[in-house]
Amino acid sequence: MLRSIEQYAMQSCKVETIFLPKNVNSFAANCFEGSRTLKTISCNPSNPTFSVMDGVLYNKDKTTLIKFPANHSTSFEIPETVTTIGFCAFISSVIENVKFPPKLKRIDGYAFAVTKLKNLTIPDTITDISGGAFASCQHLTEVKFGTGMTYISNDCFMDTRLTKVVIPENITSIGESAFSYCPNLKEVVLPSTITSLGGSCFPTNVNISFPSNAKLSLDDQQILYDLDKIVLIMCLKKSTSYIIPETVSTIRSSAFKDMTDLTKIEFRSGITLKMIESNAFYGCSKLSSIEIPNSVTSFGVRSFYNCAQIKSVFFGSKLTKISTRCFEGCTSLDTVSFTQCDSPCTIDSYAFNGCTSLRTLTLSENISSIDMYCFSNCKSLERVNIPSTLKYIGIYAFSNSLISQVTFSSPSQMVNLSKYSFSQCIHLRDIVGTPDTIKNIESNCFESTLITSFDVPISTTSIGNYAFRGCSEMTVFRIPSRCLLQTIGNYIFDGCVSLSKIECPDSDFFVIDNGALFNKDRSNLICFPPASSITFFCFSQNVKSVSSSAFYGCKSLVGIMIPDNSITTIGHSAFAYCTSLKYINIPLCVKNIDQNVFTGCNNLHCGIVVQNTSISFRYSLVTNSGLSLTSMKDCGLITCKHVNYQTPVSTSYLYVFILM
């Protein structure tokens, strides 16, 4: 029974009408995102939540207009009962003229976005217009504000064709990007009542005027500030360089965004700058000279995104936060130093992602977290020293960089090594001082690195799937005495073509037998080193299960013997890609064989003894487990098309070999 129509549910659907059944109690106005064919909406009269009048959807008492169909009409008079126009109510519609009702109080976010409104008079009754309400109305050339509003929200008139804006006395604040990307806007008149302007609220090169008693100031560089020049709001004229006065403590969001001619920012001596907000210098592609003041505590999201000419950044003692994508794409950035950082500091996701020239990274002892993708794709970064204060390294944090050595300082507070944190670091060979505090090594953590050996930290309890996948140089894997390791994921040694030995001298959870790693009572074989020289392997009757991917890629194995009354379950891909494997027997005790167990075992041509004659069991071996049809036939029945005839290896031979 349909009860809810969620956002984007009918995205780009070319429908002209829609009917809402009685039980629908939730309707997202943007469910038709990208569709401009809808002409009318109808509704079951017994629906307790919604009502329809003239093809337009309202709440039951018609106080909220929920959805105006995109292709309904070019002119519309909103009923007198309506007090609220809902989120995305008219979005992307053909409406050109609208008459507001006398009781209207609120217009929600994006209500008229991407419509064809030409001019707009906001009634005095309206007190609240939410973000983006008239964004991208590219036919809108004039707006008159009512007396009920006190603020203009973020993005409210962004990307319109307004030519002049006169802000009335009742408005005290204008949000971020409220009139940004308005290419025809040449003049803005502000009242004396304005106390707050958001970053990039107007386009550059606009003529802004305000009375002498306004709480704003404009310097000869055409930089707009608050009255005391504590907050730098925006720059109104493009130039190659600017001097920031010592009074400034905050640079507002998008203040210098996309100033592609800007090459230099100079901060006056003694400046107490604390915050550089989001997108402040976004896309300043020629900015090469900037010395961050020691007083800065935080950098906003993308504040220096794609500043491709910045070469070095030295952070000061007050730093506490570098936000998401802050320096992402700064492809000339060579040196990043946190050595003066005296306060606990976090580095958010993607902060230095794609800084392909970064060679020198110095992290201070006060860095507490490095989030996901933070230093990913830093193609010149060769060495990293992890400070003892660092508690968290996010997924992909250093992935796909050229790091050759990672050194952990002690005593470390590190608990987890996250998924993919050092994956694809194809030059990483040395991990120095791996902390004993680490409890979890997550999936793909060291995938495709060049580490030659690995000692599991004593406090580690779990290692995730594919943790060492593709570590082609690893020869030895050690679980030290008293190590707390209990859980080992699947495929952790996939592609470890040199791993010939697993060591586990004294563990409460594991034991080594015949080169393989078992659980403590030897009832479950967990994994076998892919590069082991052992060619024949015989299970003992004590073994009851083989874990998934246990023998994955063991290319030296020729024969495997499973005794009667032993193994009952073989996990998925357990013997996959054992390319030399020519013989294995499957006794009646084996009840469950998972998928892809024999995938890639191209030498299992014939002579495989399968005692279970059940058609369904054998069918599953072929269709799910990857065993070929001919493998269960006598080798004498196979035609000469097979170059190598296969002869089953006798049980007695296998037992003698293992004993030797």
UniProtKB/TrEMBL annotation:
Entry superkingdom: Eukaryota
Membrane-spanning intervals of the chain: none
Organism name: Trichomonas vaginalis (strain ATCC PRA-98 / G3)
Pfam families cross-referenced by the UniProt entry: LRR_5
SUPFAM superfamilies: L domain-like
Gene3D superfamilies (UniProt xref): 3.40.50.12480, Ribonuclease Inhibitor
Protein name as annotated: Surface antigen BspA-like
InterPro entries with a match to the protein in the record: LRR_5, LRR_dom_sf, Surface_bspA-like
